[in-house]
Sequence to fold (299 residues):
Amino acid sequence: MSTQEAPPTLDPVAARRWQRIAPASSPWLHEEVARRMLDRLQWIKLQPQAWLHWEAMRGGLLAQAELTRRYPAAAARVIECTHARRQAAVQALQRPWWKRGWGQNPQVLEKAEPASVDMLWANMALHNAAEPQSLLAAWHALLRTDGFLMFSCLGPDTARELRGVYAQLGWPPAGHEFTDMHDWGDMLVQTGFAEPVMDMERITLTFDKPARLVHELVELGRNLHPQRFPALRGRAWRATLEAAIEEHVPRQADGRLLLTFEVIYGHALKPLPKVKLSPLSSVSVEDLRSMLQGSRPKP
Fold:
């Protein structure tokens, strides 16, 4: 995939619809990945004065609580892109009266001011973006100079066992293809980030029966492939799918079904802008202020 193009196997209409209808709750896997992202913060020395959690209701409220404890003096903000999830976030993140002395409630917003935060936290959102480089550019714009981005997303080996089942049955693809971590690194640089650090791990989940495996996938998302089956599926198809999973998906020694998730983690900085001015150049007020002031000293 060219880093300047939308993902070729992702239907943008379906992706935007999932963005609107996704429930205001985080799947277990999202919470687990967020916990592992938190471990990576030990290598980050910058102490943000303000930070933003992108779509916290899906990304994980346990991480929201831990980030609040980690940065108690920092202003916390949450972006939720739908009205329903903003309402849910306000309710979920409202501290009871006896805890209000521990700090202010986070601001829950539809959008934030440019160059307003020192850290942007985005867990398990990027792989479902219809225009991923536009989303990276939006994150870049929200960060102050010397601020940093922490994100995670699914990688190409995710659900490879289920993809194999679909191929054996001659069905359309089980889901869109996920982007490789090296391509994400290239996109970060093209967007204006610096010093991207990418790493990857594979997490294997086990399930006692096919129905539980399918239920887990439904919580995580939808099939966004343009060539997916275009109509509704019935009970007979569901029974065929579960029987095929029972037969073809590998098992561990105790008989539990195995399903692989490749998880990509990324970290990058927003550097001091380097702009060569010409008579037709335009520079944002935020970038111009950063250029005039120079790089802020790091705490």
Remarks:
- The two ends are 39 Å apart (CA to CA).
- The CA atoms of residues 274 and 291 lie 8 Å apart.
- The first strand starts at residue 50 and ends at 54.
